[in-house]
Write a structure and sequence with these properties.
The protein is α/β, with parallel strands linked by helices. It is 27% helix and 15% strand. It has helices spanning 19-29, 94-110, 121-124, 136-142, and strands spanning 6-11, 39-41, 61-63, 81-86, 118-120. Strands 3-2-4-1-5 form a five-stranded mixed β-sheet. The radius of gyration is 14 Å and the shape is globular.
């Protein structure tokens, strides 16, 4: 098992999508072997070409890359982190926030992490990103 010491929260920078769509983007457009994130939190919106008739529930936590594999979501931090992607740009639903809080708290317990081990992508990226466009630690603190 990998030594996990960071949880890194991202946004998809798209208003729609799910784990399968992101997997397609990462494999077909970036040439990666799989989706870069370990978890994706859906917003209930799908694109017309996405699995027609399949309801993507708002706040649904989808599994992406297996946890035993290093992610491809934050350069220099993939080997020791778990990547979580919120579908959206800068507006997220209450169901998404609730799902994120539960997921992060569970992973913190599982991997013996503290709030200081939770990051927004913008805190670790050197290219000036603002993703996920909110402070995940602040969200978790407010949820107590």
């Amino acid at each position: 098992m990998r030594d996990i010491n960071k949880l890194i929260v991202h946004c998809s920078d798209s208003t729609f999508g799910n784990a399968n769509r992101i997997r397609g983007w990462h494999i077909n457009e970036r040439g990666w072997s799989d989706i870069g994130y370990h978890y994706v939190i859906a917003n209930g919106k799908i694109y017309k070409d996405d699995e027609v008739g399949k309801l993507i529930q708002d706040g649904l936590v989808e599994v992406g890359r297996p946890l035993y594999k290093a992610g491809a979501h934050c350069k220099g931090h993939n080997s020791n982190s778990i990547g979580i992607c919120m579908i959206g740009v800068d507006k997220f639903s209450e169901k998404q926030y609730t799902a994120l809080i539960h997921l992060v708290k569970g992973l913190m317990i599982q991997y013996d992490l503290t709030l200081e081990d939770v990051y927004g992508h913008y805190e670790l990226d050197t290219n000036g990103k603002t993703c996920p466009n909110f402070n995940p630690r602040e969200l978790i603190v407010k949820s107590k």
